[in-house]
């Protein structure tokens, strides 16, 4: 600088570092980018690693967006250095539904059909559940529910009485037959209609309608 009398002076400062570089951030573990997984078989949530060799990190890295629910998900690892520069790394994956098969004979699964049966009879509800090519066999994956409904419309299809059951009414997996079986004892009240629902843990359902005689 120079004053009005023409006198000049200067000063120099050195060893000044300016951080213009973002941190390095990466996901560790968890679902792979572009991966496809079936419900119940999604890898555990990832952690993350962040490095900043200049100003250093302002805190640690964090992960958001992980989920094991059905659908498309994007996980993001984020970090910020002490210069206020942020960086992130992301991975996207998809969680798919299971595949249900059933109810098998003697139940008619056609739309608008009432399976007619004498009240108090026991109808075998048979079905299978697959996560991709893997068959699921644990009853923990299944819940059954019954709801009385109005008997309006539809056509009637008598259940084959030769295929009715008198066995165990608890839900089980029959290893010999390779399927779940729920022997459902119908209510004894005649001329009543019911909706029977099998709901798998992923939210998928099988539904059949019955009318007692």
Summing up helix and strand content along with how strands pair, one would put the structural category as mainly beta
Q: In terms of per-residue confidence, which ranges show pLDDT below 50 for 5 or more consecutive residues?
A: none
Radius of gyration: 32 Å
The whole-number mean of residue pLDDT values reads 95
Order of helices and strands: EEEEEEEEEEEEEEEE
Summarize the structure in words.
With about 210 residues, the chain is mainly β. About 0% of the residues lie in helices and about 45% in strands. The protein has no helices and 16 strands. The chain has strands at about 25-30, 35-40, 45-50, 60-65, 70-80, 85-95, 100, 115, 120-130, 135, 140-150, 155-160, 170-175, 180-185, 195-200, 205-210. Strands 7, 9, 10, 13 and 14 form a 5-stranded antiparallel sheet that branches. It has a 5-stranded mixed sheet with strand order 11-15-16-8-12, with no helix packed on it. A hairpin with a 4-residue loop joins strand 15 (about 195-200) and strand 16 (about 205-210). The radius of gyration is 32 Å and the shape is rod-shaped. The model has no long low-confidence stretch (mean pLDDT about 95).
Which key phrases capture this entry?
213 residues, mainly beta, five-stranded antiparallel β-sheet, five-stranded mixed β-sheet
């Amino acid at each position: 600088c120079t004053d009005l009398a023409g006198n000049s002076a200067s000063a120099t400062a050195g060893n000044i570092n300016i951080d213009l570089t973002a941190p390095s951030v990466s996901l560790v573990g968890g679902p792979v980018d572009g991966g496809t997984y079936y419900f119940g078989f999604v890898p555990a949530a990832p952690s993350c690693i962040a490095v900043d060799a200049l100003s250093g990190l302002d805190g640690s890295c964090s992960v958001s967006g992980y989920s094991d629910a059905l659908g498309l998900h994007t996980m993001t690892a984020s970090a910020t250095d002490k210069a206020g520069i942020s960086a992130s790394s992301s991975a996207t994956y998809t969680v798919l539904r299971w595949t249900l098969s059933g109810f098998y004979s003697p139940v008619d699964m056609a739309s608008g059909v009432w399976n007619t049966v004498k009240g108090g009879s026991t109808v075998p509800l048979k079905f299978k559940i697959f996560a991709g090519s893997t068959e699921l066999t644990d009853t923990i994956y299944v819940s059954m529910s019954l709801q009385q409904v109005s008997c309006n419309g539809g056509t009637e299809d008598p259940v084959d009485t030769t295929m009715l059951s008198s066995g165990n009414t608890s839900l089980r997996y029959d290893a010999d037959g390779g399927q779940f079986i729920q022997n459902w004892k119908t209510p004894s009240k005649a001329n009543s209609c019911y909706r029977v629902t099998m709901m798998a843990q992923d939210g998928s359902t099988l539904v059949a309608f019955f009318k007692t005689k």
